[in-house]
Design brief:
This protein is α/β, with parallel strands linked by helices. It contains 15 helices and 14 strands. It has one domain: Aldolase class I (TIM Barrel). Helix 3 (98-114) packs parallel to helix 5 (133-145) and helix 9 packs across helix 11. Bound molecules: flavin mononucleotide. Residues 171-359 form the FMN-dependent dehydrogenase domain.
């Protein structure tokens, strides 16, 4: 199958059997899926990151910043009592397989060194197989490496309240991410086929004693989604848009039965989803805080997401690619560079805090402008 300029190969069956993994137990199959996600995220990285969805966001330069590097405060305020040291963080990726233990260990050590928040990959495998010490450790290593940092637990939107609490407790997490991923599940060979999530999300928000972020995994959200989540009591929403890691491509490569490659460009890009969120929240008296993820690969992208209203920004694929292709020292240098560059850029814009970016002037161009016009946004 040809997607854009790449030929998409379907996954090799794990055991050479055309009925992939037919003899294997559920934990082994879930572990293989985790491996597949890492493998295919890497394989398609160049393809999915050849263009930037943030290109159509143009900050307006001010010749008179009236600020200095020393005046910049890098904290990000998500809600009362929840503050991050930095406005970007390591977004949810992995856990559950032996290779993910090492990845989580390296990411969490960097998170601790640079005071970045870090989200765990989905812990559903660990709460389902709670007697499996190896699986559990591939997640708990995140807290071991970063005992005092901000850690986000992660479960799917169908997860019962009891298991959601287990996930939080497992990591002594400060926050719980609940991911919504209908497009991924639909393409995933072994995925869910029904998506009645809102009521359960409301129960999770009520039933856990940490703040909850509801997060898309890369297809964005609409204005209506933001309104419905807000009505369900959600106070933190990550619009997680298209533009980076693409789970249609990843799951399609794992699907030996059906071809969903025409959904490759499905969903709202991260800037589009942020505009949807701005439109939804501007009329609310007590709006939820909006976060962003999807296609962020530079400090300027973080700034642009802030200009479109994000209070914090998650980065997954870009950091993973640096780690897997160049090693942990290169990722260490990258994070150091991002932090210093971000402060300088905020100074250039005359913004003393990340939240001030949302007040800066910005011009939309190209497809994003067209999208905003047709959706009556801004
Ligand atoms: C290998 C990999 C595995 C992922 N697994 C999860 C997951 O378990 N839970 C989740 O909420 N998001 C998961 N994501 C999605 C990311 O958190 C993020 O929302 C998405 O990749 C878009 O951001 P990016 O473009 O910076 O990669 C995963 C991403 C990658 C690259």
């Amino acid at each position: 199958m040809i997607i854009g300029d790449i030929v998409q190969e379907k996954a090799e069956p794990v055991d050479g059997n055309s009925q992939r993994g037919i003899h294997e137990d559920p934990a082994t199959l879930q572990q293989q899926r985790k491996r597949d996600h890492l493998t295919f995220a890497q394989r398609y990285y160049d393809h999915t990151h050849q263009d930037s969805v943030f290109r159509d966001v143009r900050p307006i330069h001010t010749a008179l910043p009236e600020s200095s590097v020393a005046a910049v405060d890098t904290h990000a305020d998500l809600m009362q009592g929840l503050q991050l040291e930095w406005p970007f963080y390591i977004e949810a990726m992995t856990g559950g397989s032996p290779e993910s233990l090492r990845i989580n260990e390296q990411l969490a050590a960097l998170a601790a060194k640079y005071q970045l928040a870090m989200a765990s990959g989905s812990q559903s495998i660990a709460v389902k197989h709670s007697d499996n010490a190896d699986i559990r450790r591939s997640f708990t290593v995140i807290r071991e490496q970063n005992p005092d940092g901000i850690v986000f637990a992660n479960v799917g939107a169908h997860t019962g309240v009891g298991r959601a609490r287990m996930a939080v407790e497992m990591l002594q997490a400060n926050v719980l991410e609940v991911h919504v991923n209908a497009a991924q599940e639909i393409v995933m060979p072994e995925g869910d086929r029904g998506f009645y999530w809102l009521e359960n999300i409301a129960s999770i928000v009520q039933g856990v004693d940490v703040p909850v972020i509801v997060k898309e995994v890369g297809f964005g959200m609409s204005r209506r989604d933001i309104e419905r989540l807000s009505e369900a009591g959600v106070r933190l929403i990550n619009v997680g848009g298209r533009g980076g890691t693409n789970f249609v491509l990843i799951e399609n490569a794992r699907n030996e039965d059906l071809d969903f490659s025409e959904l490759e460009t499905w969903g709202q890009s991260t800037p589009e989803a942020l505009l949807e969120a701005q439109a939804a929240t501007q009329k609310m008296t007590n709006p939820p805080a909006i976060l962003a993820t999807g296609g962020v690969r530079s400090p300027l992208d973080v700034i642009k997401a802030g200009m479109l209203g994000a209070c914090a920004v998650g980065v997954a694929g870009y950091f993973l690619n640096v780690l897997l292709s160049q090693g942990s020292n290169a990722l260490d240098e990258t994070v150091d560079c991002w932090q210093r560059t971000l402060v300088r850029m905020m100074t250039l814009l005359g913004c003393k805090s990340f939240s001030e970016l949302s007040q800066c002037d910005v011009v939309l161009t190209g497809n994003l402008l067209e999208y905003a016009k047709q959706r009556h946004l801004r």
